[in-house]
Structures are given as structure tokens and as C-alpha cells.
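Subject: Acyl-CoA dehydrogenase structure
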Amino acid sequence: MTDRWNTPERVALRESVAAFTRDQIAPHMDEWEDAGQLPRELHAQTAKAGFLGIGFDESVGGEGGDLIDISVVTEAIVENGGSTGLLASLFTHGIAVPHIIDSGNGDLIDRYVRPTLAGETIGSLGVTEPGGGSNVAGITTRAVKDGDHYIVNGAKTFITSSVRADFVTTAVRTGEDGHGGISLLVIDTDTPGFTVSRSLRKMGWHCSDTGELAFDDVRVPAANLVGEENGGFYLVMQQFVNERLTLAVQSYATAQRALDLAVSYARERETFGRPLISRQVIRHKLVDMHRRTEAARALTRQAVERAQDSGNRADPQLILAAAMAKNQAVEAVEWVVSEAVQIHGGMGYMRESEIDRHYRDARILGIGGGATEVLNDLAAKLLGY
């Protein structure tokens, strides 16, 4: 543990978020998982508590703080009964509005960022397309200029929070093929021609609504262009470091929660007249789970601190650190949640057990934000291999 993660302010933040999670989130997780989405009022409650805008400057309606503070909030929510699925849905603005803020467009900030950070509206980010996967440069959804509007046609898929969203920050092609022809448009979901073609059912993240979107001659005001035309690819790329580090934090925090649940169960569960934790094989499992979790935490926190101290998200060494941290943390959580289910035995396979949720939710972490294989290949290039 470093002092930067345990200042009096961050200790107080952690305790406040933990209490909020135990009171307002954990008791309702089963209900929200069954519903397939979070209630809109949770966004308002979280904003009122002062947590929704953590990591965003007060000048745009946020609560202030930095990437370390965001990480503290993430840890506290997961380790007190929340989940990565809940984080993905409740904090989708973490990927929906940074591009708007970076553009410096005061009108868009007033119309979309401020009400979202206040918990009044919900935003999502529309990049991935059917068949497109991680190939951002291959986007085919097209926006054609028509006077003071763009006409948008195409489709998006796997879009988090899009079923409930009020707007989608959407990657569209406005120019030539490749990364140089991509722009970002903020599209209101009540615009004629925009539809959520279907709500997607998933292996995990059940409380996080995910949609497939269709754009059929959607007329979007040119004033909703984020940044420069054909400059959207770079706006998207600039956010990848933060997204990967956030997912890495989610991964080790989930591993820690799974370990805590496994230890608690092993202490309570008796087998053949003795507590399960008295068995050497179980104790050794727990030690290995602890070791992998701590290694992932250390590497990720080191990368988070590097990102916090760097003003350049295009720094190759920072990009490498984020990729390595994410892959290390994902490897840890996948192993730890599996062992935690094994320790729980048959109960771990039951939907009524919390560890079941973490086991299912962990699987997406090695896919979203850059698949493990993609990040390994990126790391190989950055290392000169």
C-alpha cells in the first residue's frame, strides 16, 4: 500500500462509498440482475451522495478527483457487494463523456456532460459494430453532411447502457476509409430513425443493459460533432489507457471480493466434523488466490500512478503499462473466481450465491477494452519483440 492510496481524504472516500454500497446497492443486486438493468434513480442517488462525478473536474459538473480516486471508488463498490456489471452500467459516463470534455465544446458539455454527472441523464458510447470487433479503424456506420445536419446510417452492437441511454456518443465515418475518416457525433436516442433493435442477453453483467442499435437516416445537428470532423479516432484512442486501467482495477477488486467470500465460506463450512479452512489443500488455495490478487493489485496501482503523473496518454511506456496491468489483473481474477467457486462447492454453482455472479461477470473483462490477445500483441510491438 502506498501513501497516495491511503491519504485521509481517500480513506474517508473509501469508507463513504463502502457504506453507500452496503446500504443502497448490495441489498438490491439480485433484483437488478433479474430486471436486466439498473433503476434510473440509482444514478441520481449516487450523484447526490457525491460519487457519480468522481474523477471529473468541477468546471464540467463533476466532483473533482483523479484516476486514483476513481480506482478507490471502484474497489470500495466491488469489495462491499457491488459488481463489475453494476459499475459498467452506473458509470458508463466514464466512457461516454470524456471525449466531449476533451473537445472543450462548452455547448455540448452543458447539454450532455453536466446533466449526466448530476444523475439526470444517461449516456453511452457507440463504437463496436456487428462483425467489427476491436477494429475501430474499420467503422462503417456513415454520416453524410446535409446542410447543418449529418444523416447517419448503420448499426452498432454490444453497446453498454444503450437501452436506457438518453444519448449515444457515436463513432461514424465521415471521410475516407481507415482511421482518418472517423468522427464522433452525440446522437439523442429520441431522434427519429434511431432504434434499439434489440436488448442483448449476456452470460454475465446481467444488471447492465446492453443493446444493438440501428441508425436509419438519423438527422443529427452538425453542432453535435465532437471535436474536429475526421478527428474522432484520436479522441477514442486517447481514452483507451484509462479504460484499460479501470478494467484492471475492476479485475483485482473482484479477485479480492472472491477471496474474501471464499475465506468466509471456508471458515463457516464444516466437512467431516472440521471447518473447511482447516484442510491444508484449502489453505494453500487461499494463499495462491491472495498472492495472485496482490500481484495484480501492485502492478495495476503502479500503472495507475504512472497514468496519473503523465500528461501524455500517447506515451508508449504508459500504453504498455496499461496493457500489461490489464492482462495481469484479468489472468488473476479468472483464476481466483474459479477457485472461489470450487471452494464453495455446490453452493458456488447456485444463482443465490454471490460468487456465482462474480464468476460470470469476470469473463468479459478479458474481452472488453481490448481483448487479451490484442493487448499481448500490442505489448509485443511496444517491447520490440
